[in-house]
Amino acid sequence: MTSIVHDPAAGHDHSHDVPVGWRRWLLATNHKDIGTLYLIFSFTMFMVGGVMALMIRTELFEPGLQIMRPEFFNQLTTSHGLYMIFGAIMPAFVGFANWMIPLQIGASDMAFARMNNLSFWLLPVASLLLIGSYFAPGGATAAGWTLYAPLSVQMGPGMDMAIFAIHLMGASSIMGGINIIVTILNLRAPGMTLMKMPMFVWTWLITAFLLIAVMPVLAGAITMLLFDRHFGTAFFNAAGGGDPVLYQHIFWFFGHPEVYIMILPAFGMISEVIPAFARKPLFGYSSMVYATASIAILSFTVWAHHMFATGMPVTGQLFFMYATMLIAVPTGVKVFNWTATMWRGSMTFETPMLFAIGFLFVFTIGGFTGVILAIAPIDIAVHGTYYVVAHFHYVLVAGSLFALFAAWYYWSPKWTGRMYNETRGKIHFWVSMISFNVTFFPMHFLGLAGMPRRYADYPAQFTDFNQIATIGAFAFGLIQVYFLFLVALPIYRKGDDTTEVIGNSPWEGAQGLEWTVPTPAPFHTFENPPTVE
User: Fold this and answer.
1) DSSP H/E element including 419
2) How far apart, in whole angstroms, are the C-alpha atoms of residue 433 and residue 362?
3) What is the value of pTM for the model shown?
4) CATH class of 30-515
5) Where residue 16 falls among pLDDT bands split at 50, 70, 90?
6) Would you list the domain boundaries of the chain?
């Protein structure tokens, strides 16, 4: 029988039993517990993927082969991408969604609590499959995170383990998306119309629709790969009447909306943090909602800008070029709205605000290089080079990751009732910001000079920039370890350098239902839904 303890923060006597011990986590149905599990898992995978990145950078410190064979190098580049996207960034956003969406809309929990539990526990199983693929004959898949045919058709059993893992992660994402949509549409507090919802909730509602739309497309692509590998089909085999470029079309029809799946929740987080520390309402709320929806819709029209180098007709190149440039417009609307929110605000610069402003700066650089890569003639010249690596790391590390840190610093005092050490938080920000730019900015120049990505060796003229990037990468990795042990864990362990949060909110300008519940957030919240005026 499950042991239970009385939770004094709960309202009445029939719904406040809090499970303890391993059952609380293994059988978790409370949205806060599941959110915590997602965040622990994602940070673990972030560290694993980060170690892989540092192994890659160590190999690239000097020309020639230093510590690994090219085959293993390609396994690392493939795994690093898969772990960071499907293991770190996406689960982290779902963790924040689980924690914050019910609190922000006044719901008692997520709509489907047991499905929520299942959607999480699929992820550790999938990650074990990915890690275990290194021990398969021939090692892990080395086809790049995009798993392009025909290379992925020729890989060993590690490729099949990766396909199974991605299927599990996709199923998890679809279940999570369904849960989020039903929760938002059906469980909002009385009086909370759609246009009164916080921006984080809006961005996740739109993201959840994207997830349900595109994860089955990825499932289709990798299932066709599996059939080509084992069941005699020839979807991607030209000799059998198939077309390897078909795989790219199907994959990127998933892959480009996926980019926005990894950035739209970040937009929502930044839209929560900046108004709080500018002490002003978000400028142009409705235009932000429409811009987010526009980005999601347009993301289905731009997939082949990843494929300019495949020899598509000029008409196709022009269509995808203009569609990609068009998507910069609603993204620009958001940047201007955030800037206008800060304009003449009564701003203070605590750690969440620093990460939010840092996000604005570096994400905008990533956006500019994205517009440059949208120009087909330029893209053909720099396709497959480190310029592309620099671009998407500016969007994903500086975009998704910095927003996640901003949100963690903003909301974690509410979760735990403890205030992180502000000085250490600022050290974490400044070292992250500087080392990130030291790592990835030189890659623009490497790419323009023609250094191809996914190569374990390179000509001597690229040495200096590679050494700078490697030094920056180690600094960036070490400061995340610093964050874990000296910023995050003391909050959860009630460390000496943390202080107790007094009152419902530690932030003067914070608005929203999540700040009306007691601090730390009790196990059960909103048993009687609040009314929104």
Assistant:
1) strand 418-419
2) 9
3) 0.95
4) mainly alpha
5) low
6) 30-515
